[in-house]
Design brief:
With 83 residues, this protein is mostly helical. Helix content is 47%, strand content 0%. It has one domain: Alpha Horseshoe (Serine Threonine Protein Phosphatase 5, Tetratricopeptide repeat).
Length: 83
């Protein structure tokens, strides 16, 4: 549910899920990517706010913005730049 909110929802939805106990520190998939990877790879839309979501994940919840995935050795910036 938290991953879906990061991919499709808003920063507020993510905050609400974490306040209800969702694990913000989860690593996803065989590449062991944190939620910042998925927020960075979102398409830019008028609503949803990729930047506000990234701020919440990094500044409020302390996730590593410079994390490197396990297999490809990419950072979230790589995924953000693909836009």
């Amino acid at each position: 549910q938290l991953l879906d909110a990061v991919k499709l929802g808003t920063a507020r939805e993510v905050q609400d899920l974490v306040s209800r106990g969702a694990n913000v520190n989860q690593l996803i998939g065989s590449l062991s990517q944190n939620l910042v990877f998925f927020a960075a790879s979102r398409r830019l839309t008028p609503i949803g706010g990729r930047i506000s979501l990234l701020k919440v994940l990094v500044q409020q919840f302390g996730l590593a913005a410079a994390a490197v995935d396990r297999g490809l050795r990419h950072t979230p910036l790589f995924y953000a730049a693909r836009e």
